[in-house]
Amino acid sequence: MTFKTRHLIGFTAAIMTVFSGLSASAQETLKIGSYPANPPWEFKNEAGEFEGFEIDIITEIASRLDADLEISGLDFRALFVATASRRVDAVVSSLTITDERLEAQSFTQPYFSGALGFGTKEGSEIDSLVDLAGLKVGSIATSFPEGWLKEREDEIGYASYGSYDSTANMLTDLRNGRIDVAVNDIVSLRYAFTQPQLSNLEVALEVATGDRFAIMMPKDSEKLEAFNDALTEMKTDGTMATIYEKWFGVAPAADSLTVTPLPIPTSAN
């Protein structure tokens, strides 16, 4: 092999190394915000790593977009600031699509239809919304349950309302009698009440609301369509159903939002 040939081979190898490095470093990192105390939707395990139904969804989306994933824990109210300021690419936290939120944020297609759970101490004898009259109720600040309760304050006639920054604080007050009823999405409450320290609490009442959970993103995000396409693929190829069954123990209904491909929503309905 001549010096010229060796030189050319070496130069070619160097160029390939440079371009290989550029390709690796060019892989996009999706910045995701998440409320870290919202099991089974998202939570941190003992190792400090995020787990949950929506964590599996966002992880799968990142894989399909050939992107890395960086998940940050945020206070629930901070999720909206993070998307509005575009500090994150998306947030997950069992977030309901509402017309008010759509004015400042964008959402992917929904993948879950929610219902409200009304948590009480065992033996509360609460069987309907009528039984909430004169009681102290609470929910998470800026959440869908909070808005739902405030809109119906006169109708329900509860004595007082408490707004909480975390589910843990709300359920502590419920257990200690500072509030009579804690209102949250029913899946979260049922999961929480399986914990030994909350075994004296129960879901006394369930109210179907038709609210739809989705991934929230900055308004008109350039990544919105790609996220939505990935969700459509996941619903079509069975991946969403597999994730659902992993976290909820049953297969989703055949006509549910979990397996029905939908367009990007322009309204809450």
From TrEMBL:
What the record says about family reads: Belongs to the bacterial solute-binding protein 3 family.
- PROSITE patterns referenced in this protein's UniProt entry, alphabetically: SBP_BACTERIAL_3
Q: Where does it reside?
A: Cell envelope
The molecular function GO annotations come to: ligand-gated monoatomic ion channel activity
Q: Which Pfam families match?
A: SBP_bac_3
Cleavable signal peptide: 1-26
Keywords, alphabetical:
Signal
The chain positions of domain Ionotropic glutamate receptor C-terminal read 29-250
Which residue range or ranges hold the Solute-binding protein family 3/N-terminal domain? Answer: 29-251
A GO CC term? cell envelope
Q: Which InterPro entries match?
A: Iontro_rcpt_C, SBP_3_CS, Solute-binding_3/MltF_N
Q: What is this protein called?
A: Polar amino acid transport system substrate-binding protein
